[in-house]
Specification:
Chain A has helices spanning 4-35, 42-58, 64-85, 94-116, 140-162, 164-174, 176-181, 186-211, 220-233, 238-259, 261-278, and strands at 130-133, 136-139. By secondary structure, chain A is mostly helical. In chain A, a hairpin with a 2-residue loop joins β1 (130-133) and β2. The chains are: A mainly alpha, B mainly alpha. Chain A binds chain B through residues 38, 86, 89-90, 94-111, 113-114, 224, 227-228, 231, 235, 262, 265-266, 269, 272-273, 276-277, 280, and chain B through 56, 103-104, 106-107, 109-111, 113-115, 117-119, 121-122, 125, 129, 240, 243, 247, 276-277, 279-280, 282-292, 294.
């Protein structure tokens, strides 16, 4: 069963999964690195992103390429209200943030169940065509999803590395007090970081909903995956999130295809628990003093 | 009046109330709520022990699950009497705790929360995957009561109450002992406690094992009362509910955990028709408590009392 066609096919799937996991985990790690907030409600923003895309396409009949950026941005903008209502109380209070945001997670999930009911919906495929690379079948649908995820990651990298706001964010993540004494307006940086993190989560959710299905319970898996990715790579580390996402996406795709989903879940959890024990700060993270 | 007799009076009133109230009503539903509160109080008090050493565990109901499945399987498949089942369940929970405790308790704060969250998920998956033993997602039905005469809710209430007095009393006694003071020292300043000669890891592991064994007891009592076990009853969400009980009451005292238990068990039973709304409300309570009142209801009461005392100093002496 290990012939080149199947391996190639699995490889294509792995890249798609990895890209989505990295998108979710990047926002999660950004919030932790800068604000010391463990966002247990992160998956719910992914769920909102998926619903935004679904409604813009199904009810408003927008073209996909317009609906995606508009829907995702709208979710991130609306979430700034939640930042003001909920998140700002938890900045730099890690322990309280974990439990308080678990509360927000419950509110958003069950609020969505009340609003949308639990049944699953499908977002219509972007394209039904398939691309043949030798014997490997690549659905164009998947290819677009991967391309968008990779483009978003590149944009994020350019933002963090190339702009003044990105520089200020990296400074704040390294040492908050010194960044403040150098004139970094942390209140503003928090808002920007929150917006970016939610934007990435909503985008990941929309792409996730595109590939699988949309339901109010969509947020659970991305949240779990974000946890695992961030623990693998190291909490607060951006390259760590990328590495963790790749590791998880590839493991899940390969082990899941050949040995079943349960085997891949047990393997992933086992590795993560083992890593937490010997190196809790992750592969690329730094231990706290 | 000196505080001593007043306290004794309070205890007598509490005891009379706990024993007497089931006779004030014939409503089976109220008796049922009473049983649930009493059983859950054991679980909440045992989680309180772990929290008092500075760790918030998100897999505590998994240990209730070990107790429930251990006791159910030994009673139903091996035809053991219930007391043996109870001991098997508690032993299973304590054994697993002794295995993982020394490893996971070295992690601090957020890492402990994350790893227990994942462990809870692993246990749930293990229950679902091993359907031959555990009945998988369907669970196990028609579990017999501990003793044949315990089919009545009121009778079961007294049965469970006896265990709760033992279990919660044990926690209370432990917390007021020198051991309990060492626990507080570990939570407040781990390094300092270690320097003062407190064996930190050994103490944490001991507390963890004791607390998990108590959780196993609660699990067994619950399984033989509800007469059904299934994986969803022991998932992360239920663990979270136990944490909520400790948080809204106030994490710094056992009274807080008891107050939280009464609140969190009664409310859902009264709001049966509005499951989703009730979860939203719990979420809101969780958020508001952590954001504005980390000391919980107990601290709120203290603040109100202090405020009243400052307004009317004459009445407070």
């Amino acid at each position: 069963m290990f012939n080149a066609t199947i391996l190639g096919q699995v490889f294509v799937n792995a890249v798609g999964l990895s890209a989505i996991y990295i998108l979710v985990a990047l926002g999660f790690t950004l919030l932790f690195g800068i604000m010391r907030v463990v966002n247990f409600a992160h998956g719910e923003f992914a769920m909102l992103g998926a619903f935004a895309l679904f409604h813009l396409i199904k009810d408003w009949h927008w073209p996909w390429l317009l609906a995606l950026p508009v829907g995702v941005t709208a979710v991130a903008l609306a979430s700034l209200l939640l930042e003001w209502l909920v998140f700002r109380w938890f900045y730099q209070r890690m322990f309280e943030s974990m439990i308080g945001l678990l509360g927000l997670n419950m509110m958003m999930m069950f609020g969505a169940v009340l609003l949308w009911d639990v049944h699953e919906r499908n977002i219509p495929a972007i394209s039904n065509e398939v691309l043949m690379l030798g014997d490997i079948i690549v659905p164009v649908d998947r290819l677009i999803v991967v391309a968008i995820a990779v483009a978003a990651l590149a944009l994020f990298y350019a933002f963090i590395r190339g702009t003044r706001a990105g520089l200020a964010m990296r400074a704040a993540a390294q040492d908050l007090e010194i960044a403040e004494t150098q004139g970094v307006d942390t209140r503003r940086i928090y808002k920007i970081a929150f917006f970016v993190a939610i934007l990435l989560a909503a985008l990941a959710g929309a792409l996730w909903g595109q590939i699988y299905a949309v339901s109010p319970l969509l947020g659970e898996r991305p949240l779990l995956m974000a946890f695992i990715v961030v623990i693998l790579g190291g909490m607060g580390s951006i390259p760590g999130a990328a590495l963790g996402g790749l590791l998880l996406g590839f493991t899940e795709s390969f082990v899941g295809t050949f040995y079943g989903a349960a085997a891949s879940a047990f393997l992933t959890f086992g590795v993560v628990i083992g890593l937490l024990i010997v190196r809790p700060w992750g592969i690329l993270g730094t231990p706290e003093a | 009046m000196t505080p001593q007799p007043r306290q004794r009076l309070l205890w007598i009133v509490a005891a009379v109330f706990l024993i007497g109230w089931p006779w004030l009503t014939e409503d089976k539903f109220l008796h049922h709520v009473g049983v649930l509160i009493v059983i859950t109080s054991i679980a909440a008090a045992s989680l309180h022990l772990i929290i008092r050493t500075g760790h918030v565990s998100l897999c505590h109901t998994a240990f209730m699950g070990f107790g429930a499945y251990g006791s159910t399987i030994s009673v139903m498949q091996f035809a053991m009497p219930w007391p043996v089942g109870l001991l098997v369940g508690m032993g299973l929970a304590a054994g697993v705790a002794a295995l993982i405790g020394p490893i996971v308790l070295r992690l601090t704060g957020k890492y402990f929360v994350l790893i227990t969250f994942l462990l809870g998920e692993v246990v749930r998956m293990a229950i679902v995957e091993n359907a031959a033993i555990t009945g998988g997602s369907n669970g196990i039905f028609n579990i017999p009561p501990p003793f044949p005469f315990l089919t009545n809710n009121r009778a079961y209430y007294y049965f469970a109450l006896a265990f709760a007095v033992l279990g919660v009393g044990f926690c209370a006694r432990l917390l007021t002992s020198e051991f309990g003071r060492a626990m507080d020292a570990v939570r407040e300043a781990e390094r300092l406690a270690e320097c003062s000669g407190v064996p930190v890891i050994r103490l944490k592991v001991t507390v963890f094992i004791l607390a998990c064994a108590l959780a196993g007891m609660a699990g067994s009592l619950q399984a033989h009362y509800i007469r059904f076990v299934g994986p969803e009853a022991y998932s992360g969400f239920q663990s979270l509910n136990l944490v909520v009980m400790n948080v809204i009451g106030g994490m710094s005292s056992l009274w807080g955990a008891m107050l939280g238990t009464v609140f969190m068990v009664t409310l859902p039973e009264l709001l049966r028709g509005y499951v989703n709304l009730q979860q939203i409300m719990f979420g809101a309570i969780l958020f508001a408590t952590m954001a504005f009142l980390p000391g919980g209801l107990i601290e709120a009461g203290r603040r109100v009392a202090a405020f009243l005392r400052s307004r009317w100093p004459s009445t407070a002496s």
